[in-house]
Amino acid sequence: MVIVVLLLNSQLTNECSKISEYMTLKLMRELGIKSRMQKRYRKPNMDLYSRKIIAHKLSRHMTTELVVNVLNQACETRTVKAGLILHTDLGSQYRSTALETALKQHAIRHSYSKRGYSYDNSVVESFHASFKKEEVYQRTYKDYHEANLAQFSYIEGFYNSRRIISADGYLTPDEKEQLVS
After folding, report:
1. Residue 173 banded pLDDT, cuts 50, 70, 90
2. N or C, fewer C-beta in 10 Å, the chain?
């Protein structure tokens, strides 16, 4: 991520320079500047057929509890049919006993990405990139609650219902799902 930062008394030669997030945080620590920005973890579950986000939560921490809660939310939203597969990366929260237990309760098979092969999750990563470009980088959130509402509004009010997806024949996720219902 590239951030444009204006620092008056810094070691930078230019008045306004593009620097990495790491360097920005390092300079802020050195200068005693505190940030109100906190990292947030967005956990969506996507239907790969329609690319619709069927469950999502925002959290201050990426935990097993967050992953299990989003899985349960997805199972409440959708009818789980035989042969359903949940595909995840190899993060520790996805390899936890709690998630495996929840998957067995819902009769869902678990599939993992191959180590070092990031293309397995490219569809979800594409969603994250779109979300950041179209929502996150366009706004400043006062607090966690406002960020959570903005995520809900983007996904439910725009992405699923109005954002066209070129890989789906320029249909929205909702329109793609209506084709099979």
Report:
1. very high
2. C
Beta-bridge partners for 16: 6
Instruction: Kindly give the interhelix angle for 64-77 and 97-105, rounded to the nearest 10 degrees.
Output: 10
d(C-alpha 90, C-alpha 110), whole Å: 11
3-state helix, strand, coil in the chain (%, to 5): 45, 20, 35
Give the Cα separation of 157 and 124 in Å (integer): 18
Could you tell me which residues come within 8 angstroms of residue 149 by beta carbon, excluding any fewer than 6 positions away? none
Q: Are the C-beta atoms of 58 and 42 separated by less than 8 Å?
A: yes
Rounded mean pLDDT of the chain?
A: 83
Record the tokens describing residue 76, joined without a space.
Answer: 């409440």
Q: Which residue has the higher pLDDT, 29 or 45?
A: 45
Q: Does 5 have pLDDT greater than 50? A: no
**In this structure, are residues 158 and 127 in contact, taking their beta carbons and an 8 Å threshold?**
no
For 21-161, strand residue ranges (E) read 41-47, 52-59, 85-88, 109-112
Q: List residues bridging with 53 in a β-sheet.
A: 46
